[in-house]
Structure formats: C-alpha cells, structure tokens
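Hi support team,

I'm filing this because I wasn't sure whether my run with cytidine-5'-diphosphate finished correctly. The job status page said complete, but I'd like someone to confirm that the output block is well-formed before I use it downstream. Pasting the exact inputs I used:
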Amino acid sequence: MVIALDGHSSSGKSTLAKDLSSLLSVSHIDSGAMYRAITLYFIRHKVDINNKSTVAYALESINISFKVVDGKTVTVLNGSVVESDIRTMEVSDLVSDVAAISSVRRYLVSQQRRLADAQSIIMDGRDIGTVVFPEADVKLFVTASIEVRTQRRYDELKARGVEITIDEVRANLTKRDHIDSTREDSPLKQAEDAILLDTGSLDRSGMIASATKMIHEKMIKNNV
Ligand code: CDP
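And here is everything the job wrote out:
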C-alpha cells in the first residue's frame, strides 16, 4: 500500500504523515528531508548548483538513509545523523533551488521508488502523487493559508530556539511555494485524483480524524 501526501510547506503534512504512520503501522518517508540532505551536502562542499557536471559528480558521493533513534526516524547523510542540520534556515533558503535541478530529482525519485519496493509506505512531499507514485492507493493534497502556515512554522522554529522574525518565515515559505509550483520538472500541484485537505482550522487530532475518514472512504471505493 502506498499513501502519497503532497502539499505546501508547513501545511501539517509531515505531522499528519507521522501520525498516520503510527496509526496504520506503515513506514513514513519524508522526501523533503532527502532534498534537504542533498542541499546540506552542497552547502558543506561548496557545490556550484549552476554547474551540471559538478552537481552530477557530487550526487555520486551522496548516500541518504533513515534510521530510528529513541523512537524517532532521523535522516542520515553519508553515515552521520543530520536531522537538525537539515532544518536550518540556511538549508531552507536554498533547498527549493536544489530541488528544481532535474538530475537531483531523478536521483531521489529512483531511491524513493526503491523504498516502496518491499514495504507499505506513507511518503510526503511535493510530487509524490503526481510523479513518484502516480499509482498510489490514496493521495492527499494538504494545504492551509499562508498566514496559518507562517504562524505554524514560526512557532516550530521558536520552540527550537531559532532566532527569526515572522516576516522572514513568511518570505521563505512564499519564495519556496513559488519556486516549487513554477519549476519545469515535477512542479508542486494537486494530482487529479488527490483528495484536498485544508488543515487551516484543524488541530493535530482534527487532522488525523479527517484524513483517516478520507482514506477509509477512498479505500472502500478502490477495494484496497
Ligand atoms: O518541511 P517543509 O514543508 O518546509 O519542506 P520539506 O517537505 O522539508 O521540503 C523542502 C523542499 O524540498 C521543498 O520546499 C521543495 O523544494 C523540495 N521538495 C521537492 O521538491 N519534492 C519533494 N517530494 C519534497 C520536497
């Protein structure tokens, strides 16, 4: 079984994916973490993202995996846990430019498909229902207004002790929304057969309640 969760930044899709993963006992893969890990590698190794051959060469040296530490899934880049390093504003500022590079997308999409070969999976991202798994059993497209998403990401960063203003958070989300939905390769868009979930007025339990109801109805309809 494959459940694809796509949508805008801070729409709640990662939280929802984690909650669905424990409720349904299905593995969760955060595909955004993979784009962030590549971005971190490019920053650390000063890879010129405008140079195609440098990017292709760098990709050959990158290995991304996930492991569970204290009950939480964390991202591993070339053997080191990078879960907090990939969530900095420096990475957030560059990640959408990196994710617009076709060779980067090809590299990650094949890894993402392989992850679903041997197991049921919930994957969240931007192109999961449209490109990575067009045949997914259930597709949700998760969104909320820019103000709601900005406040959520601001609260999240503040709780982690990050020094940032609400205007900087809004500017980053707006910039990424624009790059992600206008890029040529695999732009962020709702798949035709995806169910729209607006999380603007939903708290965590409301989100999971709405999503499980939608998934249940879809599975009955699809005979999954
Ligand atoms: O956590 P947040 O919603 O801010 O973003 P994320 O899921 O960590 O994704 C970071 C960035 O990776 C996005 O803004 C996209 O540029 C890119 N991405 C993508 O292009 N395709 C995916 N399947 C997942 C993420």
